[in-house]
Design brief:
The complex is a heterotetramer, with two copies of chain A and two copies of chain B. Chain A is α/β, with parallel strands linked by helices. Chain A is built from ten helices and twelve strands. Chain A has a single domain, classed as LigB-like (Protocatechuate 4,5-dioxygenase, Chain B, 3-Layer(aba) Sandwich). Chain B folds into two domains: about 80 residues, Protocatechuate 4,5-dioxygenase, Chain A, CATH 1.10.700.10; about 45 residues, no CATH class. Helix content of chain B is about 55%, strand content about 0%. Chain B has nine helices and no strands. In chain B, helix 1 packs parallel to helix 6. Chain B is globular and about 45 Å long. Classes of the chains: A alpha/beta, B mainly alpha. Strand 7 of chain A pairs antiparallel with strand 3 of chain C. Chains A, C: One of its GO terms (molecular function) is ferrous iron binding. Chains A, C: Pfam families: LigB.
Chain lengths: ~290, ~150, ~290, ~150
């Protein structure tokens, strides 16, 4: 192998309370036990399938990006990214090391494929990025590999469509697989599943929607990409819209470009974690 | 504006679009300032004085002082920004979200453990789900008025 | 008329020295006289064709955007924009009033047409935006109408392609003409023409290229949009790449969407202003 | 990296791509700081001390102190950022651009009035135009060595 390759995609919710539970040593409590149990397999899988780089799609929750500047898509090209203070003080987790060389390569390639990225060279990262790392890697002294943060605007409307996200995933795949170093790259899509954090409708959970989403994400991502925003809001809550980010990771898998169908290495679903339904999936390229 | 806003008929939900963003600009930027520990200290020491440093409307300031997140959202706040106020108060996202329903903390937590709020009746304005206007506030406070 | 309409497009270089010449009262000097003479018609034309809003495409010159965050396309949605201090102190020109309502409408529509804009709610504007206003409006106490700043990254590579810019112009046209107030909107494309500000090749000017560019911009913008970046660099200097921004304004004209061919109300070309060839064009929709 | 860099064969020209940007990050951010009058004053009062506040390489600092813009660009600087140094010195863009050619201010100005530098011989490395490496520095300094 001489070129970089996407070997697998990982999908997971990034609930802040999960980070707090871990950081405060509550992961053994009855409330949290079933959540972390769902990631036991994943931690072993990560140890056995350690990537060289993780391309991590998430959304910033009004942390690095205020209302002064709201990028639709932002790629982190810095050497490192510090865990943010979201108001509770920064999470006690390792600094995230970037991969500026691959990130710059992806930025160049994806912009030349007509995606209008914002290039970010300085950024703190919030729970949207660090909670998935904690879930998949536990509580190490350092994260197992460099991470390229890729932030999607799902805070201020209009947010990018599912279709746009899916197409972006395809472009990212092309970009990564044209990088001439033999890197094992995983792409992660985070956020979701059904949840609503605001108003009298707070607490909405829709298990049927979530499980149908997981089914379709595996078997028919192209079709899933056509789902309009309003369906997410109506069925999965106003913050359920975060699920469009999963389509970026899915669009980067081999089958979408005519390759073999991915293997479902792991699937997990649980309600609740705080206000949220937790969903998790690992797909391997063959 | 002729652009579609298909999200206006979802009950109990305010979508943070450009219009809300403009309305809430200073409120939300105030919230961002609470990401610095020193600002949190200053805010806690004298909330009113700290708020007066921002070009917020009086209604926005009152809504913050009252920790009424529904009022904050109506005034242009977005939950991810407003969460910084809750964080400053040492509150969790679950406590913040629950506070917008009228339920007690326990009621809301129990609802979530029981599988969360159903989408049934809560998809479109005018149905009869728990998030509809005629059923607010929810929980004990709400039940009292109907029992 | 009940909807907003693009009535004309204006194209002009935005050389900082032109602003300085005006601000320092040097516009009557022999060196500057021919430059300002080329805009005499334009000032009258502006007075007679006063728009309700100007959609002004320009690039930020490392002013509002540092290397921390580099948006490919950024739309200014603020109420107002302050002239920046670029190191010489701010230009003594009026504050630029925005049009937040139309800007937000355009942002929403253009993002939904798959352009991944960055929404900007706070931004100082540099010579790229204020010099065209000075050239077209002179030295008024207040600018004649609100302005929506639209900043394009042409500083750090990769910059968007001419094709992408042209397609964006089409999307902006659709957005503006779906705004349900009877606004007379002009779209301006600024920057260029041939110039190079760096290295031993500084001072490059290519009159043949520039005039061919003007010809093709008028008659065959679709073909012009296919010109690759490297042609601009090689033929028009490293900063000549700014000309891709003219394609955004051109793409928003009626003929591109099947309407009538625009009228050339004015055309002007002069060498030099400081390091730069000055080009200027006014096209009217019929 | 297999991505095309078709711009590497243009003489006398450095395209500011991601690689240059990474190289020049601190240098360029230093330049941005000069957009504040107070920082310009501090820089002018003690250039070395001000530069030492930034995580720049010694070569970058020396290049700034020498006002050698070609060296600055080689070290990752971009002209739009570097222009803030010139502005601090009260220099125009024409003076800055000219300084990179080896010409005197008058020579460069006269070249521009005469229609600027021709593209002939300056499109591709290895031709014989005025921007080619074997003809540097230009102007009187350059002519001396060949006469
Ligand atoms: Fe989230
Ligand atoms: Fe420019």
């Amino acid at each position: 192998m001489t070129m970089a390759k996407i070997t697998a995609s990982v999908y997971t919710s990034h609930v802040p309370a999960i980070g707090a539970a871990l950081d405060l040593g509550k992961s053994g409590e009855p409330y949290w036990q079933p959540v972390f149990k769902g990631y036991e397999f994943s931690k072993h899988w990560m140890a056995e399938n350690k990537p060289d780089v993780i391309f991590l799609v998430y959304n910033d929750h009004a942390t690095a990006f205020s209302l002064d500047m709201i990028p639709t898509f932002a790629i982190g090209c810095a050497d490192s990214f510090t865990p943010a203070d979201e108001g509770w003080g920064p999470r006690p987790v390792p600094v995230v090391q970037g991969h500026p060389e691959l990130a710059a390569h992806i930025a160049q390639s994806v912009i030349q494929q007509d995606f209008d990225l914002t290039i970010v060279n300085k950024m703190d990262v919030d729970h949207g990025l660090t909670v998935p790392l904690s879930l998949m890697c536990g509580q190490p002294q350092a994260w197992p590999c460099p991470v390229i943060p890729f932030a999607v605007n799902v805070v201020q409307y209009p947010v990018p469509s599912g279709r746009r996200c899916f197409e972006l995933g395809k472009a990212i795949r092309k970009a990564i697989e044209s990088f001439d170093k033999p890197l094992n790259v995983q792409i992660w899509g985070t956020g979701g599943m059904s949840h609503q954090l605001q108003g009298p409708r707070a607490g909405l959970i829709n298990k049927e929607f979530d499980n149908a989403f997981l089914d379709q994400l595996i078997d028919d991502p192209e079709g899933l990409a056509s789902k309009p925003h309003i369906d997410y809001v109506r069925e999965a809550g106003s913050e359920g819209i975060e699920l469009v980010m999963w389509l970026i990771a899915r669009g980067a898998m081999a089958d979408v470009a005519g390759g073999p169908v991915p293997t479902v290495a792991h699937r997990f679903y649980h309600v609740p974690a705080s206000n949220t339904a937790v969903g998790h999936l690992i797909l391997e390229n063959k | 504006m002729p652009l579609d806003k298909p999200y206006l008929d979802v009950p109990g939900t305010t979508i943070f679009d450009a219009e809300q963003s403009r309305l809430g600009y200073h409120l939300n930027q105030f919230c961002m300032s609470l990401m610095k520990a020193a600002n949190r200290e200053r805010f806690k020491a004298d909330e009113r004085a700290y708020l007066d440093e921002w070009a917020m409307t009086e209604e926005q300031k009152q809504a913050v002082l009252a920790r009424d997140l529904n009022r904050c959202i109506k005034a242009g706040g977005n939950i991810y920004f407003l969460a910084k106020i809750g964080a400053t108060d040492g509150k969790s996202f679950q406590q913040m979200a629950g506070s917008m329903t009228g339920m007690t903390e326990e009621e809301y937590r129990d609802m979530m453990i029981g599988g969360g709020r159903s989408a049934e009746g809560n998809r479109v304005l005018g149905e009869d789900g728990t998030a509809q206007a005629h059923r607010q506030p929810q929980g004990r406070a709400g039940q009292k008025t109907t029992s």
